[in-house]
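We were asked to recover a plausible sequence for a given structure. The inputs and outputs are reproduced exactly as logged, with field labels preserved.

PROBLEM: sequence recovery
POSITIONS: 607
GIVEN STRUCTURE:
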């Protein structure tokens, strides 16, 4: 293929949307690149230059720059390398200017061959070379023929990075690995991932849960073994949440890798046409102790970060201990109800009474006695008129007397007999019953299993036992106002966002992992009373909007002010139970307190 000329952003337009999806390509604007390379090396270099007050110190600084080597193993059209070269060159020029002012001139300079890249697409690799050469020309420098950027065309997960830049000479490795989730990987990419993890001991780690970008972290661990290389990669935030975090965290600990800095979740929008809109993080990591740890938090995911020092950064990007919550069958706190999924019909829709069929079913004098309100997650959130036939206790003579029941039950029997699942076939002899029955016999609290990550909370509500919970709801039988308050608090939501899985971008709750691992506080009577009062205030605020569904009340685009104020009061009442008298201000603060509490319970043998 002929070389593609032009700036990287123009080259990016030549790759189709389908190719981008397959390759996981999402291009980076300069501001986002600086979020990666500033804490990786640029801030430290600027501080060193500012501290260089003598000719000898400035000379040493220039020599240090000349000894640095940079590698981007997924360099694309060279965006990261171009910005890194430009910034290092800027610092060198400033040092040289200050040296000349002291009567010293140095002919040596930063070279293009200090900047190395690997790129699978030949077009993008050509663009990276051209972009770096053009950047050098922009500094009025014409390099000798043997000083060219070292861009290798190849699959970075199958070639040895040492062949591009020996690890003993490498200083910093950074970039934007492809964003390809587990469900989207091609067979070739799955093999790429397998090969990347093959040199590592992954016993008990479930590397198959990790996405394509994690394979670059695996390569980095192998590449940096025994060498003081520092790394920083952009990744989707799902890598530091849920199942992926539970696999990545133990892997990093096993190989002595520490997270040096992290940009917590922020919104990514690339500058190219058909731009990606995803939420990403930046992970900076190395082996050994390489200085203070830094967390960059985003109160507004589309805004600027707020930096804070951290004692430790765990895989959830929290300033907390390196603990990974494990699945539990019972809640971590004493006296809490079990959280279980609702009832599973496996009925082909024949036990569900759709609105269009409701009148006909209610006209049957037998069937109408068994019609119950039936809520799956959508009907729960949006107050949809859904019903089902709940036929526990129905007699054979009643079925015989009801054409509606006969027709529907026979359809279910045939469907279950044709199932490939033995347990479903076994229940073909009781086709009038749900296949999994977990209906509470008392008033219960319900949460949708899946909810938008943009809502302030996952809305919960109390339901009577006559309301049948579908398998897309999580139920908490006998729950009280205290538990309602805890599950509707910012603390619980911080925990959920960290440890829960995802269905696309939505939060997906698994009770044994999200609820049962939550490190409940142990309040005194007054602390408990405040939470219960605040929880009732939330319920009272909801009642002031009759006819409004939970989905409408918790619309992220416009939550009613009265309800928002009630939640503010609830958050304060819950947060002080974790942090004493001081409410927690940010998600990072909440996670720190939660993981510290979880670690305490772990040491006590309760987690």
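RECOVERED SEQUENCE:
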């Amino acid at each position: 293929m002929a070389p593609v000329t032009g700036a990287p952003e123009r080259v990016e337009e030549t790759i189709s949307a389908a190719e981008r999806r397959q390759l996981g390509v999402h291009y980076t604007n300069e501001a986002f690149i600086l979020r990666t390379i500033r804490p990786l090396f640029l801030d430290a270099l600027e501080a060193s230059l500012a501290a260089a007050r003598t000719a000898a110190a400035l000379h040493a600084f220039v020599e240090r720059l000349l000894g640095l080597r940079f590698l981007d193993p997924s360099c694309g059209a060279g965006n990261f390398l171009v910005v890194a070269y430009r910034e290092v060159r800027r610092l060198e020029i400033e040092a040289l200017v200050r040296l000349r002012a002291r009567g010293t001139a140095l002919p040596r300079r930063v070279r293009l061959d200090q900047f190395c890249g690997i790129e699978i697409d030949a077009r993008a690799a050509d663009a990276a070379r051209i972009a770096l050469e053009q950047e050098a020309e922009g500094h009025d420098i014409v390099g000798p023929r043997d000083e060219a950027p070292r861009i290798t065309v190849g699959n970075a997960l199958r070639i040895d990075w040492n062949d591009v830049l020996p690890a003993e000479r490498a200083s910093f490795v950074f970039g934007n690995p492809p964003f390809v989730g587990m469900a989207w990987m091609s067979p070739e990419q799955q093999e790429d991932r397998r090969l990347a993890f093959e040199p590592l001991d992954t016993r008990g780690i479930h590397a198959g849960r990790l996405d394509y970008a994690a394979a670059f972290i695996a390569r980095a661990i192998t590449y940096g073994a025994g060498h003081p290389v520092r790394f920083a990669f952009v990744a989707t935030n799902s890598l530091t949440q849920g199942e992926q975090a539970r696999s990545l965290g133990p892997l990093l600990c096993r190989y002595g890798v520490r997270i040096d800095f992290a940009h917590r979740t922020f919104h990514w929008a690339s500058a190219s046409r058909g731009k990606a809109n995803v939420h990403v993080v930046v992970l900076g990591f190395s082996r050994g102790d390489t200085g203070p740890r830094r967390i960059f938090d985003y109160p507004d995911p589309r805004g600027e970060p707020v930096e804070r020092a951290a004692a430790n950064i765990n895989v959830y990007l929290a300033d907390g201990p390196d603990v990974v919550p494990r699945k539990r069958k019972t809640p971590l706190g004493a006296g809490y109800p079990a959280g279980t999924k609702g009832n599973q019909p496996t009925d082909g829709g024949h036990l569900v009474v759709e609105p269009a069929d409701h009148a006909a079913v209610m006209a049957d004098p037998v069937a109408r006695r068994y019609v119950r309100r039936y809520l799956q997650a959508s009907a729960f959130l949006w107050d949809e008129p859904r019903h089902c036939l709940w036929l526990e206790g129905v007699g054979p003579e009643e079925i015989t007397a009801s054409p509606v029941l006969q027709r529907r039950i026979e359809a279910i029997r045939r469907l279950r007999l044709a199932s490939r699942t033995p347990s479903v076939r076994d229940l073909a002899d009781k086709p009038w019953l749900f296949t999994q029955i977990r209906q509470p016999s008392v008033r219960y609290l319900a949460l949708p299993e899946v909810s938008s990550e943009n809502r302030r909370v996952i809305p919960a509500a109390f339901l009577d036992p006559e309301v049948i919970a579908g398998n897309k709801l999580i139920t908490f039988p006998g729950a009280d106002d205290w538990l309602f308050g805890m599950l509707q608090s910012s603390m619980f939501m911080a925990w959920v966002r960290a440890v829960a899985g995802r269905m696309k971008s939505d939060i997906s709750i698994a009770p044994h992992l999200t609820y049962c691992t939550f490190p409940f506080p142990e309040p005194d009577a007054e602390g408990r009373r405040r939470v219960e009062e605040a929880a009732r205030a939330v319920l009272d605020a909801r009642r002031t909007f009759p006819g409004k569904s939970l989905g409408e009340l918790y619309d992220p685009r416009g939550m009613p002010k009265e309800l928002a104020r009630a939640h503010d009061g609830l958050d304060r009442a819950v947060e002080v139970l974790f942090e004493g008298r001081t409410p927690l201000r940010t998600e990072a603060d909440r996670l720190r307190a939660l993981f510290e509490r979880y670690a305490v319970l772990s040491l006590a043998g309760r987690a």
